[in-house]
Each structure stands twice: as structure tokens, then as C-alpha cells.
């Protein structure tokens, strides 16, 4: 009886803590937009310097947010291979099992761009970080690829989810070709990152308040760089893009069952 009461109290606390976490995320986004980024915009520097400051600001903000979720008892986490990240011109390709993936990744990478859905540019809670950190819209696929390639060639790093959206639990991966096309055009350093979340939560099939019976545990595993020579040598280039996309899909499928 006492154990059941303790479990219910624990569940109730985590539900409240989850709500507090999401509320804090939204308020934090508004404060960054209204107070922090206007001040940063007054500082001297070219566009790349301003984007760099914006990305660092988002990084530290997300670091604090993940720390909040951890301290409130919503989540725990492990990171393997962090030393392989934070390199210039690095394209980080990751799977996408849960809503907090991108937040968790950026909280560990000081300067990184990423691709965001075009509709989020009109979200008042997200617009500040998106615009000031120089994130790239997926509204125009050709322009998106060109901007990503240019960013990587300039020495910037990027995070891309080849699925384009969160994974469906129990369903096979279906990768889009954009990540492979960007990697090959930019001749980037490609680093795979495998994310896992147990128990499964914050997927496309769940609302934020549908929390699991216990704290979820997020694992981030950074793999070794993937050589592009074999795929870059294929002709026409579309074959290389297609083969590399299949390679990535097979890689993450294998990691999923390990």
C-alpha cells in the first residue's frame, strides 16, 4: 500500500515537473527574444560573429534547461564520446526518438546550426533563438541545402535529423536524402550520433502530459566519423547521395537493435 502511494506521489510530481519544464522553456524563449537578443544585436561584429554569439546563447540556455529537467527528476542521461563533437565543419547526423533530442544535442555543442520547420519561424517562443542563431528553414529544399553547404564550408557545424521528423516507435526508419546531399556537397566531417530514450516518451504519438511510469533516461552515443570517399566518387552524384542515404539508414537501424 505504501509503495503504491509513493508511486502515485512520484508520478504526480513528475507530471508537475514536466509542466514546469515546458512552461520554463516557453518563458525562456520569450525572454531571450525580448531581452537578451536585442542587447546582443547592439554589439559590434559581422553576421558570422553575431550568429556565433546567438548560437552560444542558445547553447547555454539549453544546457540550463536540461539541467532543470534533470534536477526536477523528469529525466536522467548518459553521454558517450562527447569529445568527438564540437569540431569546425562537422555535420552531426542523428536519429530523432523524442522531442528533447535537439535541445539535448545543442546543450552539448557550443556552436551549431540546424534545420527547422518553416512554421516555427512564426512561433513566438522559438522565433528569437531561430533567427538570432542563424538556423536554416526547410521551406525551400534547394535553398536549404545550399545554405547548409555554405555554412559547413565556412567552418560551422550542423545538426541534421535525416528523418525530418521524430521517429515512430516500432516503425522502420525512412531517411530523406537531404542530409546525404549536404554531406557530399560540402565534403563535411560526418559524425553519427545515436540517441535512445527509455521508457519512450515525447514521441509524435504522445502529448507532453502523457509521461511514462518512471523517469525517462536519454542516452547520447557519438560514433566514429564516416568516410565519404566511396560515395563522393560515384557518378552521377545522385547515385552517391542515394547510396549514402541507404548507408545511414542501415547504420542507425543496426544501432537501434544493439
UniProtKB/TrEMBL annotation:
<keyword id="KW-0012">Acyltransferase</keyword>
<dbReference type="GO" id="GO:0006654">
    <property type="term" value="P:phosphatidic acid biosynthetic process"/>
</dbReference>
<comment type="pathway">
    <text>Lipid metabolism.</text>
</comment>
<protein>
    <submittedName>
        <fullName>Lysophospholipid acyltransferase family protein</fullName>
    </submittedName>
</protein>
<feature type="transmembrane region" description="Helical">
    <location>
        <begin position="12"/>
        <end position="40"/>
    </location>
</feature>
<keyword id="KW-1133">Transmembrane helix</keyword>
<dbReference type="GO" id="GO:0003841">
    <property type="term" value="F:1-acylglycerol-3-phosphate O-acyltransferase activity"/>
</dbReference>
<keyword id="KW-0472">Membrane</keyword>
<feature type="domain" description="Phospholipid/glycerol acyltransferase">
    <location>
        <begin position="90"/>
        <end position="198"/>
    </location>
</feature>
<dbReference type="Pfam" id="PF01553">
    <property type="entry name" value="Acyltransferase"/>
</dbReference>
<keyword id="KW-0808">Transferase</keyword>
<feature type="transmembrane region" description="Helical">
    <location>
        <begin position="60"/>
        <end position="80"/>
    </location>
</feature>
<keyword id="KW-0812">Transmembrane</keyword>
<dbReference type="InterPro" id="IPR002123">
    <property type="entry name" value="Plipid/glycerol_acylTrfase"/>
</dbReference>
